[in-house]
Amino acid sequence: MTEEFDRLVEQFERFQENTRRAESRLADYDGMRERIADLEATAHSPGRDVTVTAGPGGSVKNIEFTDRALQQSPQALSATVMATLRTAVAAAARQQAAVVQEFVGDDMNVLDQVLQTQSEMLGVPVDQLTADLPGSAPPRSEYLRGLYNEDDL
């Protein structure tokens, strides 16, 4: 009877440990969602006449124009807005991928995939794309550490 009881106790302890791990992961994902909801990326047009702030999921949070921007033709202003918008949204996507990468670990190279895709689509080297990733808060995962210079850490 004690052998059966010991087996049941062991199964119950494993169940409790699995429950604790699941609760911990859920708390981590809540933290990830909060960080993603708070992220912003701001881009400026080359002449700094147009400023666009983008958030997670490609959301546009703000667009600002200088008086000089409004002196452009509608077609030129539209092209400037669209180029600046694409830059801000791409930067926000990289930030979002960096947050996700931090939480999923090195098993899934989410950030690497985003960086590679954007590099190919934008014709910009990956090193240049990582420049706008947050350097003030060093990444926790070893995968992300490789994307930063030691001075940034």
From TrEMBL:
UniProt cross-references to InterPro entries, sorted A to Z: YbaB-like_sf, YbaB/EbfC
Molecular function terms from GO: DNA binding
Residues covered by region (Disordered): 130-153
Keywords: DNA-binding
Pfam families in the record: YbaB_DNA_bd
Stretches that traverse the bilayer: none
Domain of life: Bacteria
Protein's UniProt name: YbaB/EbfC DNA-binding family protein
Originating species: Allokutzneria albata
